[in-house]
Structure formats: C-alpha cells, structure tokens
Design a protein that fits this description.
2 helices, 0% strand
Length: 142
C-alpha cells in the first residue's frame, strides 16, 4: 500500500506542476497578445497622423511629424519586446508540454501500482483458499 500512496503523491505533485506550467504558458501568451495589440494601436495612431489636404500651419505640420516619429520609435522598440515575449511564450509552452508528459507518466505509474497491488492481493487470497474435499468414509464410493 505504501507504493500506491507514494505513486499517488507523485501524481498529485505532477498535476500541480502541470497546472503551474499551464498558468505560466497562458500568462506568457496573454502578454504576447497584449503587446501585439499595442503594436497594432501604435500603427493605427501613426496612420491617423497623415496630413490632410489643404492649408496647414508649419507648427501643426512639425508637431505631427514629431509625434509620428515618436510613434514609429515606440513601435520599433515594441517589435523587439514582442520577439522576446514570443520566445518566452514558446519556452513556457514547451515547459507545459513537458510537465503534462510527466503528469501522464506519473498517472500511469500510479495505475500500474494499483493493479499490481490488486494482483498481489488476489494471489495471496488464492494461496490461502483451499477447497474442502469431502471426507471419505470407508466403503463410501461417493
């Protein structure tokens, strides 16, 4: 029975490890999604700064140009951050898959330990069981 308890404990630990790895992978994927959304917003803001036809003052044109340049710089810097976040998310996903594999292995080992204990108990019970034979009394053929 101690083997069964030990395997069950290992299986519980592996399940918790997988849950933690899955949480970290989901968090990393959410971070990538958030960064990509910000990147898209910066692109849309930059496109919205295009000069409109007609008269425009030099100060307004200069302000738009400065803002566009800052948005482009922020978007370029965000691109590198997104690449790093994607690499981290990929790493977390591989760690999650590894933790899942370990969890499944621990579950299988636990099931094997239970079935081995059942077989051992069955063999032990079978060894203890002796069918009763009829007592023969002299002259009785039955």
């Amino acid at each position: 029975m101690s083997m069964i308890r030990q395997r069950a404990r290992i299986a519980r630990v592996r399940r918790i490890q997988h849950d933690l790895a899955a949480l970290a992978a989901a968090k990393a994927a959410g971070h990538v999604q958030m960064l990509e959304t910000s990147h898209q917003r910066l692109r849309l803001m930059r496109e919205g700064l295009a000069s409109e036809p007609g008269l425009t003052s030099g100060g307004a044109l200069s302000s738009r140009g400065e803002l566009a340049m800052r948005l482009e710089a922020a978007r370029d810097g965000l691109g590198k951050t997104i690449d790093g976040a994607r690499a981290a998310a990929s790493y977390r996903e591989r760690a999650r898959i590894g933790a899942r594999r370990d969890q499944e292995s621990a579950d299988k080992l636990q099931q094997k330990a239970v079935s081995a204990a059942v077989r051992s108990e069955d063999r032990r019970n079978a060894a203890l069981f002796r069918p009763r034979t009829k007592l023969r009394i002299d002259g009785d053929d039955a």
